[in-house]
Every structure is written in structure tokens, then in C-alpha cells.
What does this fold into?
Amino acid sequence: MNKLVGLTRNFSSSANLNAIKTVTVVGGGLMGSGIAQVTAQAGQNVTIVDLQPELLDKAQKSIQANLTRVGRKLYKDDAGKVEGFVSDSLDRIKVSTKVEDGANADLIIEAIVEKLDVKQELFNKLDQLAPEHTLLATNTSSISVNAIGAGIKRKDKFGGLHFFNPVPVMRLLEVIKSDQMSEDTYQAMMSWGKSVGKTCITCKDTPGFVVNRLLGPYSAEALRLYERGDATKEDIDIGMKLGAGYPMGPFELADYTGLDTNKYALQVMYEMTKNPVFRPIPLLDKMVAEGKLGRKVGEGFYKYSK
Ligand code: CAA
Ligand code: NAD
It folds into this structure.
């Protein structure tokens, strides 16, 4: 029921938009396509920029499938309304391989590869290309937001918008206050988050922000329990689902977010905090080296059929 309320709010919020009317999402992968979907669902125009046309095709197909899921939930058996909802939302989405085509938006959200130098290069370019009023945001899960924006001039118009996977379902948005973010930018990002159906919380630019700072030790301790042979991964997953009410156990979640993402987030938090709970985990390193990255490749802690 809660999920349905969230989805309905997404759709009906189209009548009540704030100052941000056009959005560009750079990076059309797992997160970027989800962010573009919820933006279009909320009645706003969005451009997705990715490097290759095939990746944009993949993003559009995945958005269409997920919109159909949402439409079926909203309109049950009314096939005409489902179709209308899907095609209206898709009509609001443009795609391009050139960042220049998306530069003229009110808000640009970056959801590209989790590498500091690549993100910095992109933001420096966006800072040059975008009109003065454009707000810039990163969806990084673990890198310092201030470091990502270190080279841009409009530091007052920059911050973090951290979404959760799967974006259309997870109702939270963390709004990360960079050191020089203005109050106007903060308020605009908070109200934009609400306009796309999310409940927004605020955090300073601190390692892992709120959610990953707490999920990191949980995930790391689960991996160590398993690595020591104290319990099977299956029992640990069952334990956290049935004993703590989590929708997925820690190994199912690691496979879902990607073991590489998991390893990188722990590494960055270890470098930034020196807290030993985030120290490297040999089992995780080994699995990443072997390419067992989780669902996206068909195998992580568990095996997945296509
Ligand atoms: N788009 C639209 N709807 C979707 C969807 C998508 N991509 N994926 C799932 N859904 C909907 C389904 O239609 C279904 O809706 P109803 O219950 O209303 O029928 C519902 O979500 C549940 O889906 P499923 O039945 O397919 O699967 P499930 O019950 O196993 O739930 C899940 C899947 C929502 C992912 C759930 O297991 C869950 O919440 N897992 C935890 C996810 C989580 O913790 N995410 C945060 C990761 S950390 C992060 O993202 C931050 C970071 O920086 C790494
Ligand atoms: P992904 O690999 O699915 O998608 C990244 C996309 O960015 C790819 O399609 C790639 O082609 C594109 N890309 C890379 N460099 C680009 C560039 N210079 N210009 C345009 N496009 C470029 O990754 P993802 O899981 O969607 O993660 C994206 C960001 O979101 C990362 O910063 C990640 O840390 C963060 N994040 C991920 C999750 C998660 O659960 N996966 C959750 C929250 C935040």
C-alpha cells in the first residue's frame, strides 16, 4: 500500500511543480534511468545523456517496462489508461549522446561511473556549458560531494541528490549539502525531490551520508560472519529478513547493488574515516577480482538466470 501511495503521489504531483521544470540526467544506467523515469512520471521534461546509442536504447526499454509496471498498479485493468500513462511519460524523455544537448536544463543530475576524476571532468564541462541559473547535482554513493565539485565556479548551485536502488520504488532522497551550497539551492533541491514523489532527508557532505554510513558496517559485518564460517550466507539472509524485517538479506542486497559498488563504497569510507569496520574484506576483494559482481553479471553470492 505504501508503495502505491508513493507512486500515485509521483503522478499527481505533476500539477504542482516547483521552479525546476526541465531536468537532464547524465548517465543512463541503473540509477540514471530510474531518476529519469520518476522525473517524467512527475510530468517534467527530462533528457538522458549517455555515451553510446545502445546504452540509451537499453535505458529507454527498461524505463518503458518499469513505467508499465507502475501504470498497471495505478490503473489496474484499464489498459487504455495504462498505455496513456506510459506514452505520455515516454514523450517527456529525450535522449542524446552529447552532453551539450542537455546543458540547457534547470537541474542537471550526474549518475555516471563512480570515479572522482571522471565526475570532476564532467562537472567542469557542465559548469562551462550550462546557463547561470542551472543547478548541478551528483548522485554519488560514496565520494565526497565537495571533492566532485572542487573545480566548478557555481559552488553555491551544487550539491548531492542521492537516490536509492530501485529508484522508482525506494521512497528516499538524501539531499547532500555541499559546503558552499546556498539556501536557495538547498530549498529548490528539497522541493524538487518532493515533486518527484520522494521523502527528502538532509545530510552534510560526510562519508556515506546517512544511509550508506549505516548500511556499510552492516554489510561488512555480514561478510565477515560468512567469511569466518560462523553461519551460511543463506541463514544470514534469512536471519535479517525474518528476524529484523529487512526486505532483502545482506548478501541478496550486495548482489542487487553490485559487489563492485559495495567494495568501492567500503574502501572510500575506510579511507575517509579510518574506522576499522570499513577495512578491506578479502572475500569481497576475491569475488570482485573474479568478476562475480552480482545480479548484473548473473552471479555474485547467488546465481541468477537471465
Ligand atoms: N520499477 C517500478 N516498480 C518496481 C521496480 C522498478 N524498477 N522494481 C520493483 N518494483 C515494484 C514491483 O512492481 C512490486 O510492486 P508491488 O509490491 O506493488 O506489486 C514491488 O516493487 C516489489 O517488487 P518484486 O515483487 O519484483 O520484488 P520484491 O518484493 O522482492 O521487492 C525490492 C524488490 C523493492 C527491490 C525489495 O526487495 C527491496 O526493497 N529491497 C531492498 C532494496 C534496498 O535496500 N535498496 C537500497 C540499496 S542501497 C542504495 O541504493 C544506495 C547506494 O548508494 C548503493
Ligand atoms: P551504471 O554503470 O549502471 O551506469 C552508469 C552509466 O553512466 C553507464 O550507462 C555509462 O555508460 C554512463 N557513463 C559513464 N561515463 C559517462 C560520461 N562521461 N558521460 C555520460 N555517461 C557516462 O551505474 P549506476 O549503478 O547507475 O551508478 C551511477 C552512479 O550512481 C554512481 O555514482 C553510483 O555510485 C551511484 N549510485 C549507485 C547505486 C546502486 O545501487 N547501483 C545507488 C545509489 C547511487
About this structure: The first strand starts at residue 22 and ends at 26. Residues 22-204 form a domain with the Rossmann fold fold (CATH 3.40.50.720). The chain has two domains: 22-204, 212-297. The CA atoms of residues 49 and 65 lie 19 Å apart.
